[in-house]
Amino acid sequence: MIPHSFDYAAATSFADALEQVAAGAKPLSGGMSLIPMMKLRLAAPERVVDLGRIQGLNYIHQDQAGIHVGALATHFEVETSALLRAGCPLLSETAGWIGDVQIRNRGTIGGSVAHADPSADYPAALVALDARIVVASKRGGERTVGANDFFVDALTTAAEPDELVKEIIVPVETMGTSYQKLLQPASGFAIVGVAARIGQDGHGRLGVTGLGARPILITDATDLAALNTTEANSDIHAASAYRREMAKVYARRAIAAARARA
Amino acid sequence: MKRTITVTINGETRSDEIEARLLLIHYLREVVGLTGAHIGCETSLCGACTVELDGKAVKSCTMFAVQANGRSLTTIEGLAKNGELHPVQEAFWNEHGLQCGFCTPGMIMASKQLLERNPNPSEGEIRHGIEGNLCRCTGYQHIVNAVRTAAERMK
Predict the structure, then answer these.
(1) B contacts of A50 (beta carbons < 8 Å)
(2) A60-170 belongs to which CATH class?
């Protein structure tokens, strides 16, 4: 499993990375998605720009707008951040379900959301949280996209080819939350995963990953009709009918667990 | 296009000229000659290739060697000091935490990471901590015992 040859440059700053991406280089963050694809030669970029040496873009801090998570924060940093555990526990809990400890040590939240794998964990939490994703380019500067608009289709986001994810902004939580996941046991990817934010009255929002090409947002947790989608994913691990049923099972579990914490 | 990287491996700094596409595991095994980290699945699932990069356990099959430029690596060969096994190595020996031994280098590196972050893990936390490492021989029971024994030793 040897990738095609490529030219490599390590970005010295975020501005440098934007410049290189604008010139056609493929951004490499933690590499937990891109490197496997390059090894399988499903991806064969001619130029790779390594974001891993950009200093300071793994911040997690809070202001009036919410909690800001820098794109290079690793899943381990999101999982263990005291600020997130207290202020947005759904994001930390979800991060803790990604892959395994070695993957969480390398993989970054920015890389994961930019990759937009239909079985990734973060998208469920981010649409449930109504998170905002800040993207930037050399050409157009920064703009902010709501999570539900950001995830367009499988492996496709609202970010333009010359844009990089800069940060994710999540709200300070006021509801009970839980992420419940049926995982594919070899890869750890979600067959279905449900992120729930529920109040004491049982009302709230859900984000569902694994079921469709993009995460499904349910704005009224008492109505799970959207989980009967006719466009459910189907693969060797789970047929679409099974996925639909499991989505309902895990939605009910997530709602109950979240409500118990409300 | 080849480039020069400088890395510190088990305390010794060295420079090598490599291709950007060279995976870290191939660099360690074929260029440096350290064959302790193994190539199992080569798809970042089995964990046999686990090494430490700046103190964090990583799967060296899913990283380019150029990404380690300027950084510090520890492999299984770097754990024993002056002929004394690391407590995790000794516990795997004493508790028979292996059978064929193929997964053991990665299993020990992952266990070391776990105990550094959580010196007193429950059985569930041990199993969660080594979920990125597959063992096809032991059924994990002796491995969990070994990690628990190592935790006691390291207190």
Answers:
(1) 66-67
(2) alpha beta
Identify which of B20, B26, B132 has the shortest CB distance to residue A6. B20
Residue B125 is predicted with a pLDDT of 97
Chain A residue closest in CA terms to B1: A7
Please report the pLDDT score of residue A38 as a whole number: 98
pLDDT tens sequence across A115-130? 999 999 999 999 999 9
Report pLDDT for B88. 98
Average pLDDT along chain A: 97
The full DSSP string for chain A is: --PPP-EEEE-SSHHHHHHHHHTTPEEESS-TTHHHHHHTTS---SEEEE-TT-TTTT-EEEETTEEEEETT-BHHHHHH-HHHHHH-HHHHHHHTTSS-HHHHHH-BHHHHHHHT-TT-SHHHHHHHTT-EEEEEETTTEEEEEEHHHHEEETTEESS-TT-EEEEEEEPPP-SEEEEEEEE-TTT--EEEEEEEEE-TTS-EEEEEESSSSSPEEES-TT--GGGG-TT---BTTB-HHHHHHHHHHHHHHHHHHHHHH-
**Nearest CA distance, B80 vs chain A (angstrom):** 22
Average confidence (pLDDT) over B17-31: 98
pLDDT score of A228: 94
CB pairs under 8 A between A and B: 81
Q: A45: nearest CA in chain B? A: B21
Instruction: Kindly determine whether residue A102 and residue B42, on different chains, have CB atoms separated by under 8 Å.
Output: no
- Superfamily, domain A176-261: CO dehydrogenase flavoprotein, C-terminal domain (3.30.390.50)
Residue B1: what pLDDT?
Answer: 76
Q: What is the ipTM of this complex?
A: 0.97
For the domain covering B2-78, report its CATH number: 3.10.20.30
Predicted TM-score (pTM) of the model is 0.97
